[in-house]
Amino acid sequence: MNPAPAPTVVIVPGLRDRVSGHWQTALAARLPGAVTVPPLTEARLSRDAQVATLDGVLSGIAGPVVLVAHSAGVLTTVHWAARHHRQVRFALLATPPDFDTPLPDGHPGPETLRENGWLPTPRTPLPFPSMVAASTNDPLARFERVAELARAWGSRLVDLGPVGHLNPASGYEDWPQAMDFLDAVGCRTASEPEASA
Fold it and tell me: Which SS3 state, helix, strand or coil, does residue 10 take?
């Protein structure tokens, strides 16, 4: 009996430029066939543009997918799920920001986010299994707010402890625990042979 095919991992970054030292970049290099949603050069703050870019990537992939989203990429994923349907085996949603609460200086304000379609944040259950990995000291979202979102989305909540925003600025150029979560849903690293019948 042949095993189920390994899913294609789709990396969904946040709204900022891609960072070479980011754990999502390291994860993509470890996973054969992983696809990263490209950053937008125009209309970067547009929810519709971000959702359309994610949908375009997913439309080019046959078979099951696993989504690995970070920061605003989580909200792109949630908005995408409210509009589109396809086979998603699992979504790992790491440190979503709280767009309903004013963010620190240097980030878009509530009015800008609303004008660009991000608000209100969807609070309907996701149509696929998901896990929200939350930080207890994230400058972009209080843990309690992220826990509320996880409940609304029907996601399993994992408390990562004080990991900041889980990005290079917080000391996370790698995040090995992500691979542990993905192993459980059939994702294989480049060094792991595929099981034979």
Answer: strand
pLDDT bucket at 2, cuts 50 / 70 / 90:
low
Centre a 10 Å sphere on the Cβ of residue 40 and count the other Cβ atoms it contains. 14
CA torsion sign for 78, 80, 86, 89 is negative
What six digits make up the tokens of 26? Answer: 């390291």
| SS3 at position 70 | strand
**Of 181, 173, 156, 150, the residue nearest 66 (C-alpha):** 181
For 7-34, write each residue's pLDDT tens digit.
Answer: 899 999 998 766 778 999 999 998 989 9
Answer whether 28's CB lies under 8 Å from 92's CB.
no
d(CA 119, CA 101): 11
Q: Decide: 131 and 91 in contact? Cβ < 8 Å.
A: yes
- The model carries a pTM of 0.92
Is the preceding peptide bond at 120 cis, omega within 30 degrees of 0?
yes
**Under a CB-based contact definition with an 8 Å cutoff, are residues 97 and 136 in contact?**
no
With the C-alpha atoms ordered 23, 25, 31, 36, is the resulting torsion angle positive or negative?
Answer: positive
